[in-house]
Amino acid sequence: MISVLRTSPRPGGTGPTWRFNWVGRIGLAMILFWAFVAIFAPMIAPYPIGEIADWDYFGPMSGQFWLGSDYLGRDVLSRILVGSRYTVGISLAAVFVACAGGVILGMVAAVMGGIFDTLLSRLLDAFNGIPSLLFGLVVVAAVGSSIPVLVLTLAAIYLPGAYRFARALSVNVNAMDFVTVARARGERTPYLIFREIFPNILGPVLADLGVRFVFIVLLLSGLSFLGLGVQPPNADWGALVRENIEGLSLGAPAVIFPCIAIATLTISVNMFIDNLPKKIRDRSE
Amino acid sequence: MTQQPLVSVRDLRIGAVTDAGRKVEIIKGLDFDIHPGEIVALIGESGSGKTTTALSLMGHCRPGCAITGGSIRVGRHDVAAMSESARAHLRGTEVSYVPQSAAAAFNPSKRIMEQVIEITDIHGLMPKAEAEKKAVELFRALALPHPDTIGTRYPHQVSGGQLQRLAAAMALIGDPELVIFDEPTTALDVTTQIEVLKAFKSVMAAGGIAGVYVSHDLAVVAQVADRIIVLKGGEIQEEGGTEDILHRPAHPYTKALLAAFEPVPHVPATRDKAPNEAPILQVEHLFAGYGAVRKGEPDVKILKDVNFRIERGKNLGVIGESGSGKSTLARAVAGILPAYRGAMKFDGAELRPDLQSRSKDQLRRCQMVFQLADTALNPAQSIEAILSRPLAFYHGLSGRAKAARVAELLDMVHLPAAMRHRLPGELSGGQKQRINLARALAAEPELILCDEITSALDTVVAAAILDLLKELQSELGLSYMFISHDLSTVEAICDEVLVMLKGEVVEQLPAARMAADAQHPYSRLLISSVPQLDTGWLAGLDRAG
Amino acid sequence: MPRSLTFYILIAQRLGIAAVTLVIVSFAVFFATELLPGDVAQVLLGQAATEEAVAGLRQAMGLDEPAIWRFLSWLGGLATGDFGMSYVSNIPVAELISDRLSNSLRLAAVTTAISVPLALALGIGAAMWQGSLFDRAVSILTISVISVPEFMVATLAVLIFAVWLNWLPALSYGAEAGSFGAMLKAYAMPVITLGFVVSAQMIRMTRAAVIETINTPYVEMALLKGASRRRMVLGHALPNALGPIANAVALSLSYLVGGVIIVETIFNYPGVAKLMVDAVSTRDLPLIQSCAMIFCVSYLLLITIADLTAILSNPRLRR
User: Fold this and answer.
1) Cβ <8 Å between C225 and B122
2) pLDDT tens digits for C234-256?
3) Among A58, B444, C225, C231, who pairs with B92 as Cys (CB 3.0-4.6 Å)?
4) What is the pTM of this model?
5) Which CATH number fits domain C5-37+83-317: 1.10.10.60, 3.20.20.70, 1.10.3720.10, 3.90.180.10?
6) Closest-CA residue of chain B to A10
7) In this predicted complex, what is the ipTM?
């Protein structure tokens, strides 16, 4: 079940060995699949997304409409393919803003310490004290929903968590003697942050980025499901479920497949980050 | 002895699975016996398989390991062939265990008494009241204070030395025939170690109980063991009576272990002193501490009124037990923990307390080397990057000049130049400590602060590091401030010694005459507490336990 | 049990943090709903309104006063039970909320009563038989539930129980629930959905907390005393995992707050969350503020309880 592959062999045979199990590989494959779909969606979608192609509504799966038709008789497959651009794109943008901001602030707080650290931590913890979906509801109620607002809101909701995570890791690394050595050498804060601390928290931070990406996808879908996320005529996967919720009692594929699309994306990200390729150091080698 | 042995181990093999999923044998076919009432020591360095072997006598292997062959007979049972539930019946009643760190082995949320008598409850040995009575008797026999009430406390409310003795009571409550001691005094200070060793020895002798004593310290083992088994790489190197091993070692490895104990007299560096030369470091009335600062004084005051000087080319040792403030002193001198009062002079010029207000040149001339080589090297940087940084930072070297200097530094600490491509995680403990030294040398310092740099290393490796320090000193004219809890290490390298107790210097005297001239009662206690390679040493101490 | 001074200091500290957080949160809610949208009077009257009309309304609503003053009087109103008037229906917000709140609380209570014991049993069981088939099955199930949106759990529940098995009505709270059976059916779908979402978190965190304590030297020591697996887990690991577990329970229950918004919407359940989602679509700001504060306060309450239990269960703080 476990395959071991060797990369970049060095003379003498002491190069690093990587282990990447099949669960992680499936996860990675699915992620790459959705990334591909999001990039090339307009080219591969069989129908224009707005076109009412079927006379029937909530039509079944057929050779003509692989995933059935929706409440207006539009092709569900095309709408899911194009919807991936919103779900993946908005979530990616939000997670990068949240993690970049959170990690930099977290490292600075850990290295500086003192009053800066205390105040920032208290403030961001307080923001963590607002349930995420509620925060989204209130902001959308106040300023309306648009894609930049969604990205910033989602980023604002998950920044405190990314900060807290990165700060905790950085505080641990900061307490290590090698950072003390660098400090005693006379190094300045930017060097400490980017050369001594960052390389040592990178792995966990990337895994955290994945976890947070999943949360953001779920929250965005939830907002869209409530009609507060991506606005018509555009639709992400959550909005597709909302549009077609009437078809639920009919068991229509138009409700089920957008759900499955979300699940395949979030589950594959989780599978990948729980089974990242591991560098193996065989101590007795 | 004609008696049937209590324990017979034959061709014991224990396997482990490495990270890569490869199987390796970590115990490679051991044979040994233990007779009733006999204490056998398993001695060796880290990774020798001594703890693994001892735990296998209880049928227990740490996760990832498994007994792959051979037999372990304890009393009437073959432990290797037993089911896990049958082994559970054996544990606590026939074989019991005293852990290395009792502080971690006691459940923090339960009272001590409940945990000490738990074995009697698990195996249904006796009613609770009777068990508690027996526990109190054991507490008394182990010379614990307040034997009647100590059991009502929680583990965090008693000291480390007491917990270690309570762990022994826990092991003895079920009247076992064999007790396994897993480095039980390694985490203790020398003065505490004596009391614990005495207590162990007397209860074991009184009960006629057999024991396995796992340790890396030959001098400690000499006090308690009847027989010594020397392990290395999962194989027995030598086995014999304690006196034989100490005085007539046959195997080269045993000889190397003993040689590391030989006192190496320190030869002071001889150099011509320039007239009016300032001491390299002079410290006057130094106070330092941790915590929030109020009215110019920190909450937790550690150092109190410390004075000393180090002459150029000389070495100063600082000894004391944990909590004496010796590491704090090094940190205050290095500027990592700014002193809140007092004055320091480096080569005659004022040395400000905090890093920010020291000049780059002052920082360069005084380097610090830390105890734990693992945490002192950035695991994400190659050895080359680690050594290059001070070269670029202090000396502005780059390109070929820098690379050449890195190779030179590696050569100075006797490591091959090819090692510069490795990451710290791929090096052994001794190699990491050499890289640590090389990084300090890269700055071209005049004073190196060494904070317990040999304490985490195996005896033989530590001895080699000390030799290296001496060699570097004669080549480069360095001065060392050498912090250690180990008297013999300090004697081997230092000219002068400071004895510290609770943040104060109680005595300063020449290292060579320490044993003879020490006046302060604490210095005398410390000197007399260092275990000697002499089986009669512990018994000969006329000190109350 | 006698407690040390540090213990009381820690408790006071936690309560202080909770109070400060509440102030910051209420300011954030106020800021978002009163200041972000721009001129509320303009919003209410629409773009076509005359300047005089807008100015008149602004004065009538007290919008001329400084923001900080309005914030304080709003906060004072909340504290005394005066939640303001709904913009849309012109009924006092308190009146709109009171019925709905008891509905939501009932839903939360039933879900908690079912999911907490179930989740604890499954979480501790999975930790006890770590690596077994049972453990793996539980892990896969919980990861799946956590990885999908709440509305998908609800959708699946409807598909399985209402569409395919035909056991339960798809949309719950239609007419008045007459009999006990009818009431059970009315609650079943929302409770099943919420229960799944909340339990999955709880099981994961409980399992992790117990496993962490199983891997400690004192549990290995218990093994070397001859203790059974049951005794090691229940007698030694569990008492030390109580703090983290209580923390996990409280934290998971705070997922109720998010879950209930989706569940009430999808099942058309007349609770506070449904009220709030409707208020968002009509931009009824006083109603949104009050609902948001109710959720924030309950969330904060649960988080604070989680922190306090962690402090209470720390043996080092006993004297």
Assistant:
1) yes
2) 889 988 888 888 878 887 887 78
3) C225
4) 0.83
5) 1.10.3720.10
6) B421
7) 0.81
